[in-house]
Design brief:
Largest sheet: 2 strands, antiparallel
Number of domains: 2
Helix content: 55-70%
Radius of gyration: 31 Å
Number of strands: 2
Structural class: mainly alpha
């Protein structure tokens, strides 16, 4: 069940993914154009133009995936929550590998990915995506069904709730009280 209001951080993540998708679309189209230009304009080997075009198509597909992820986050789909957690964890791993290559700027990216993971695991966000199940469910008030008093003519009734009993019953089938 999706919460009525989307948390602000989820809205922000969805918008950021839309911006990533736009950048991927622009970059993919630029790579496709570059591939055509390299192939035709300079007369270079077809292979180079093919590689640029292939990378352009891959970047366009990644843009579509980011757009789908933004849609899933916007509407509180559980799979989008899971994918966002996985992407943030992968971002940390890749950033740590970049850090060993001497790129200090990646510390900021690692910190942002840690914040994203922490935020996605908060109860309010997990509830929005339908991923949060409280350990103890609140007790629903039980309705007590009162049975009309029956005449005493060989039939047995529970002394606690008045439900009809069989002679072989050891417990009331309605309220569970042990019978003597």
């Amino acid at each position: 069940m999706v919460a009525a209001t989307r948390p602000f951080g989820i809205t922000l993540l969805a918008v950021l993914h839309i911006l990533q998708a736009i950048l991927c679309f622009v970059g993919g189209i630029a790579l496709l154009a570059l591939g055509a230009f390299v192939h035709r304009g300079f007369g270079m080997h077809r292979f180079l133009g093919g590689i640029a075009s292939f990378i352009g198509v891959v970047v366009l597909v990644i843009g579509l995936l980011y757009l789908g992820l933004a849609w899933g986050l916007w509407f509180g789909k559980g799979w989008a929550w899971t994918i966002s957690l996985v992407l943030a964890a992968l971002g940390i791993i890749v950033s740590l590998l970049s850090l060993f290559r001497g790129r200090v700027f990646t510390l900021i990216i690692i910190l942002l990915d840690i914040i994203i993971i922490y935020y996605l695991l908060t109860p309010r966000v997990r509830t929005f995506f339908g991923e949060y199940k409280p350990a103890v469910q609140p007790q629903q008030p039980t309705q007590s069904i009162q049975f009309a008093p029956q005449p005493t003519g060989g039939s047995k009734f529970c002394s606690n709730c008045g439900a009809p009993l069989l002679d072989s019953d050891k417990f009331c089938s309605h309220c569970g009280k042990a019978l003597q």
